Amino acid sequence: MSGILRYSLKRLCLLLVTMLLVSFLTFLAFEMVSGDPARTMLGTEATEAQITALQQELGLDKPFLVRYVRWFCGFFSGDLGLSYSYRQPVWNLIAPKLELTLWLSLMSFALTVIISIPLGIFSYHLTGGIWDWPRTAFNQLCMAIPPFFTGILVSWEFGIILRLFTPGDFPNIHTNFPGALLHLFFGAVCLSIPRIAMTVRMMRATVISEMNKAYVRTAISRGNDRHSVLTRHVLKNAMVSVVPFLGQTLAELFGAGIVVEQVLGIPGLGRFLVTSISHRDYPVVQAIVVILAFWVVLAGTAADLIDQAIDPRLRTSGPSGQFGGAAG
Amino acid sequence: MKKKINGYLLAGLIITGIILIAILVGAFWTPYSPTAMKYGRFQPPSFSHLFGTDNFGRDIFSRVLKGAGTTFSIALSTVAIGALAGTVIGAVTGYFGGLADDILMRMNDALTAFPSFLLALLVVSLVGPGNKYSVVIALGLVFIPSFARVMRTEYASLRNQNYVTGARLMGVGSIRLLSVHLLPNTIRVLLPAVTIGFNNAVLAEASMSFLGIGVTPPDASLGYMLSEAQGMIAAGPWYAIFTGSTIVLLVFGVGLIGEGLQARNREVD
Amino acid sequence: MKKRFLAISLAAALIAMLFTGCGGQGTEPASAKPAETAAAESPAVQQTGHMASNEVAIGIAQDFDSLDPDYMTAAGTKEILFNVFEGLVKPASNGEIVPAVASEITKADDGLSYTFTLRQGVRFHNGDPVEMKDVVYSIERRWKDADPAAQLAALSVIESLEHDDSTLTIRLSEPSNEFLAAVMNCYILPAGYDSQETAPVGTGPFRFVSRAVQDHMILERFEDYWGTPAKLDKVTFKILENAEGLVLGLQSGALDLVAHLSSDQTAQLNKSDFEIAEGSMNLVQALYLNNAEKPFDDVRVRQALCYAVDKQAVIDLAFDGYGIPLGTSMFPSFSKYYDESLTDYYTLDVEKAKELLKEAGYPDGFEMTITVPSNYTPHVNTATVLVELLREIGVKATVQPVDWGTWLEEVYGNRHFQSTVTGLTSDNMTARKLLERFGSDVGNNFTNYSNPEYDEILAQALRTADDAQQTALYRQLERNLTENAANVYLQDMADLVAVRKGLEGLTFYPVYVLDLSPLSWNG
Q1: pLDDT in tens, A304-315
Q2: What is the distance between the alpha carbons of residues C429 and C182, in angstroms, rounded to a whole number?
Q3: Residue C53, helix vs strand vs coil
Q4: Residue from B78, B81, B211, B246 to probe the interface with A (highest A Cβ count within 10 Å)
């Protein structure tokens, strides 16, 4: 019991530290980025006096740390503040977009998991044969397709030619759920293709290295057939390395979705983030960034817990990762 | 077995080689001026304009030749920054471990959540909007943690090797140990990482251009061209198709090289 | 064994899900159509559907910002909320200012006071009658409200307000020919009402129904409107930030009207379904030069650029030929002030341009950057073409796209730039707005244009109360800008509006507004 407690405490600290770090970095970034919210809000017709006055009203004339602490206290009392450009509570603006982005991320994650795990095992069986070459080449090709390129092609093929959906015209998810889901599905497919390829590759490599291990050789030499060894022992052990990888994928999907949302016109969180950054709408950006941080830690924690369930010997370890993050 | 492994490497080198030759040729000669706007708007691909023309009546083939060069050099410099800084950080944290290690991991989480769009904006305002290196710096920063992580693992595993302990006992200084003794041994991990990093840099640069902060139009990168092409997908789909396919081919070629390198590593093991 | 069975059945279920998911792609055309029909309806049904229900769906490329009229800054928001809010006076399509919430306006002979008579029977959208207290509240809010963000700089000439139940007299500290234009932008709102943000209430022909950020806004006809009532029952604005989204929306029948399209977009529309109306954006698009920055502090260099840039080439290459070339900071809609002869003051002359550069000490040209806001494609495209044109005279220009926030701060605010492409407008239908900004000490003179003669004429023009004299002076200012090549003037951009056949009454204004009340379905 105390183990669980200690673990949750550790994770909670991790979450706090990450959120703190990210929100502070964002704050710091805005401090240095040129562009002033008051000026952006007032537009080109504003006088300098108006801009100064608005800066005072928004508290932008206060020292950096004061503003950060103020935001931080607000955040912990559940107040995300008012959006500068819409003058509405940030949470009201974000909530519907969060819903869409969650759908998109989870959908593409589901696609990735459902397709890549069986395919990874299948791909192991192809190792060494004449299929080795085309399999690897195809895998590499899929990894090379950027989601927004797929997005452009999908919106052209399925949107403009086949008219299955209208890029940019996202159906209301509450009144037209199937339509919205279909639109999101196209986005999820674009996002998943390279991720599936990466996971399959990873899965296959893990299974191969696992199959070469002593315990497998022993089991086979004792007369167990390869297949049952694979399904009974190897897969379980392979999953231990694949799960953190999937966790990292889940964490990255959220951010990677930004570009796809932009291409297909899904009014999600990512798209809102980009416009809010452009408009220097700090409260909105802060809130979204913190949600992202929460998501990243959550995905890591989930991967961790699943790993421990698979293999109780595992002590806690951080999520394993890929090189670089997709831009977003 | 040996022959097949080199197959990936060979195929990758051939594809990348062809692209590199095209880039080199494009640097000195293109069939048409890549910026001249006099070939007729939205001409579909033909023998005189292999990839057609765009909304300004520019020859897309010539633009792709130039753009591939821009993209290639940006991705290369990005990876260079990432690999260099990442190796240093990875060496220090991996070899010494402890607090630096923890901080690295937290920074990594933070960076995954930190919007790289904002990071790019930050770099742009720090080095000035007119600076053509801003993209490279921004992307380079994004790529440091992933390299750092790979190198950290590698250094941590090398630390306990006999020859390292031996060298340490013989009084070899830490810096010399890390750079002279350990570094060559990390190359086998670093090289595949560089190829994967290169590919991610190409894709990240493209996404960044796509969101509106990228290189300037006269020497457009493939990513910038693709973002231009998106707005005219109905009027001239060939623009997006050829530009996007070039990105895919470039990434594919380098990916195969990486695959070949990794396969060779496995073979050595 | 049990576990294995479980795993297999789970995998089977997942694969089944996958196949139904993938199969969706193949079978969707048949199965999804009914769902889509329900939501958006097929083109033919849609057309009669919108026509039958007497409503219109309009596509908008950029989201609205704050709906509180005193805080909204986006031109696109003002453009549409013109239908919801009115001032004491409002603009008419011929460029005149006509009475609205006031029924009568009298200007004192000395020009120092205006008297407005409150129109009888005007109601707010919430049903309350408009009373003098509302008018006073609305004007005071923008004149000297505690929140400076809401203040209208042009109202600062007010000295005092005097009112009884039916008339309001505003005294000014100095005569101002633009005062009525300022009053026009000062909307009449219910006194003390504080939910304008989420539920705007005004007096216009349409009332606000609902809005979802980055998604849509719905307006309905206001039945108790004091003037000519609107013909449509309902107008839905759909925000589609993708260029193709707008075109597809029109093609599919989901949208009936989209303004500000590019020629590439309108080219994709079927001419038998749509009428393409061509108006003008009423803005001065130019390559604005930082006159304080080298080499643009030299008039010869600026003139050289003017000789090098063929305006028509820009319009042809970046706008497919749509647009009216301009030669100064004035556009044709302001016909009273517009001096057409200035358009051809500089004609393409590469030799002369090179000669001027040589005289100025740049025989081999120079390098320059054109900073453009990356979210305004027309300006980015224009800059791309300019780079090509300037190459002819040896000037190596590069385009630097920056995001909107950076542009506002660095270029417009701090004036840290060499050159930029943008469009300057006059949101209150006055020539003053276009010309005053080039005075040496004016706050928004971001081009740093400084010309003593210009300052003198400007001061004279602002002082004079005589309209004819003022017009003549404004024309002198225009000539001054052209002769000194303050900027490389390009064009008044075309406003291409796609209107579904059968929808009539689209009216262009010399200000950036879309008047919904005359729109109606024919047949």
Answers
A1: 888 878 877 665
A2: 10
A3: coil
A4: B211
